[in-house]
Design a protein that fits this description.
The chain is built from 15 helices and three strands. With 350 residues, it is mainly α.
Length: 350
């Protein structure tokens, strides 16, 4: 009941929970698990999954016997709901309340629009094409090939240190970012990285295309800072890269944001039924992008296409529903909502 009441006061949740209880609690976790040289979060999830399956089977067996002996009572339903309630409370206390905090738009002094137009997405895509070509011209092929995955973690932490001078609430101390021990598991479940609320670790797959890592690492660290919403974590990664003055981080951001803006524009055009315009936009964008940018996008796309059929059926739908339950009405598409925040941030900069 107390937790339900708390959700009515997002400012209180932010001040009392996110900025105090969660901040210091997760910092302690990062210190403790940071002393362990490998990620333990994956193994912990596997153990919890096994225990969950065992308990479900055990309860189903008991229910079956109760039905057979006609002793199934309302008390059985009460016990089940009680256990679910306990799990809900634990989840809220260790992580879930972050979804209920007030929007960080106020911290950044932004007026985030409710929607964007097809024209706005077209303008954003065109500007991103210009930026992509310019930034990629700075980055040589050999420079990209020499990038080490471990150095990207170090650089991301460094950039958080720099951006915190402008935005103190983005201060990131006692870093704890680790490489996944079971990266292939991500192909089946459908994740690139994740924050583990029980260990405080940000766990990354190291088999991802190198140009997806700067944005992904930045996103997961944002979760460690209490930005639970995928949109908000994406926005923090956007702010970090935009202010990094690091061509690799800027280029990674531009690639990600262009994917979002182009998809958003094409989706709106497709909804209108104007498929000739859809084809014209795709053709125009390909013609404007430099061959090297096209090659980079092609290799990233090939990586994900080669793995899309390995995902466990229903896992994406389950995650989509999880996001909806946690105040992210767009579900999986909430990642794309960073476009609204990008528009607001860019408007403020000009």
């Amino acid at each position: 009941m107390v937790l339900v009441i708390c959700t009515l006061f997002p400012d209180f949740v932010q001040l009392a929970y996110t900025k105090v209880l969660f901040k210091w609690g997760t910092m302690g976790l990062r210190i403790i698990t940071g002393a362990i040289p490998f990620a333990i979060g994956e193994y912990l999830y596997l153990i919890l999954l096994i225990l969950l399956i065992y308990n479900i089977i055990q309860h189903l067996y008991k229910l079956k016997n109760q039905f057979k002996s006609s002793i199934f009572t309302s008390n059985t339903g009460y016990l089940i709901s009680k256990k679910v309630s306990v799990l809900f409370v634990i989840f809220e206390l260790i992580w879930g309340l972050n979804y209920q905090q007030s929007s960080p738009a106020r911290e950044f002094n932004l007026q985030v629009p409710k929607s964007y137009s097809e024209k706005q997405m077209d303008s954003m895509s065109m500007e991103l094409i210009r930026q992509l070509n310019k930034t990629r011209a700075i980055l040589s092929d050999s420079q990209l090939m020499e990038v080490k995955v471990d150095s990207l973690i170090t650089q991301t932490i460094k950039h958080y240190g720099t951006i915190s001078q402008q935005y103190p609430f983005l201060s990131y101390v006692h870093p704890n970012v680790k490489w996944a021990q079971l990266p292939k598991l991500g192909d089946y479940v459908g994740y690139l990285a994740f924050y583990h609320p029980l260990t405080g670790e940000a766990i990354m797959r190291n088999d991802l295309p190198i140009l997806t890592l700067p944005f992904t690492i930045s996103h997961e660290i944002a979760h460690q800072l209490g930005y639970a919403s995928e949109t908000e974590a994406n926005f923090i990664a956007f702010v970090l890269a935009s202010n990094s003055k690091d061509p690799i981080f800027e280029y990674a951001l531009q690639l990600q944001l262009f994917t979002y803006s182009q998809e958003a524009q094409l989706f709106m055009i497709a909804k209108s039924g104007d498929f000739k315009k859809w084809e014209a936009v795709v053709k125009r964008n390909k013609a404007l992008l430099s061959p090297k940018v096209l090659s980079d996008r092609k290799s990233i796309r090939a990586f994900f296409l080669s793995r899309q059929n390995q995902r466990i059926p229903g896992s994406e739908k389950l995650y989509d529903q999880f996001l909806i339950w946690n105040k992210q009405a767009s579900g999986i598409n909430s990642y794309n909502d960073v476009l609204l925040w990008a528009l607001a941030y860019q408007k403020k900069q000009h």
